[in-house]
Design goal:
Number of strands: 9
Largest sheet: 7 strands, parallel
Structural class: alpha/beta
Order of helices and strands: EHEHEHEHEHEHHEHEE
Radius of gyration: 17 Å
Strand content: 15-25%
Helix content: 25-40%
Distance between the termini: 7 Å
Number of helices: 8
Shape: globular
């Protein structure tokens, strides 16, 4: 059994209205012994909504410490964060400095680096895809991971490596790994060389993609290249999505040769047998 969910969101994320207590109660009911909150911090997110995907770090820290104490005899609560990494030349230095200041001021058990935005557009919105083929859109996304993986150093794991597939502007949300294998290899080698990991994010199953993020071929290739750090997260924004399809994820990972997954505390890894 997978006993730790290392990617979830509560009302400190702009796209969730879930109370942290409700997330924790659900985690306990599903047999988890560890839950890591990784709310979104996407500095300079391209939105007309003021402070979108930004939370007050001090307020959040105090609230999650309260929740941690409240449930200390039932489950271990970890305080993490999901940073939106950016590769646009005119803003990336400001984004990096902002995150470094936050990480220096507050203690986090675990940090996910993710690409949610590139070219100052979120692929969730149709504007990203205007005048762009699907192949070019996906290529640019993987290139952003290559750029970000080496420019930023404050994260432990790169999140949902093929997140963009959720938002393809076609009915069938899928892609051929072979079309991007060279780019993906560069990204994976960059992460491995810097001691960074990836995650197996079960939200792809929730979105009915037929695969977790990333695809099985990427998980296999990461292992072939010598990658060892693999966290597991549901990317839940609601209590009912916590630990989503974790039994299926466990079987899939074991089938492709994984024997351990990774958890973090104080940003230090520990390997847990699947």
């Amino acid at each position: 059994m997978i006993i730790a969910d290392y990617h979830c969101h509560c009302y400190f994320s702009s796209d969730s209205d879930s109370k942290p207590e409700d997330m924790v109660k659900m985690a306990i009911s599903r047999g988890l012994t560890k839950l890591c909150f990784t709310d979104h911090l996407d500095y300079l997110y391209p939105s007309e909504i003021e402070n979108d995907f930004i939370f007050n770090p001090k307020e959040r820290q105090l609230e999650l410490l309260r929740i941690k104490e409240m449930f200390k005899n039932e489950i271990e609560i970890l305080i993490g964060v999901e940073l939106g990494l950016r590769n646009e030349p005119d803003i990336k230095s400001a984004v990096k400095a902002y995150y470094e200041n936050i990480i220096h001021e507050f203690s986090y058990d675990f940090i996910i680096g993710s690409t949610h935005v590139l070219e100052k557009k979120d692929p969730y919105y149709k504007e990203y895809w205007e005048g762009k083929s699907i192949k070019d859109g996906i290529t640019d996304y993987f290139q952003s991971i290559i750029d970000n993986s080496s420019y930023y150093s404050m994260y432990q794991v790169y999140g949902h490596l093929d997140y963009i597939i959720r938002y393809l502007p076609v009915e069938e949300k899928n892609y051929q790994y072979s079309d991007y294998a060279d780019l993906i290899d560069v990204a994976l080698k960059s992460l491995i060389n810097q001691g960074k990991g990836i995650e197996c994010n079960s939200a792809g199953l929730k979105y009915q993609l037929g695969f977790a993020h990333p695809k099985v071929e990427i998980l296999k290739r990461y292992k072939e290249l010598g990658g060892e750090i693999l966290t597991i997260g549901s990317d839940a924004h609601k209590p009912e999505h916590l630990a989503y399809d974790f039994p299926m994820v466990k079987d899939m990972l074991k089938d492709i040769g994984y024997r351990y997954y990774t958890i973090f505390k104080d940003q230090k890894p520990e390997f847990i047998k699947l």
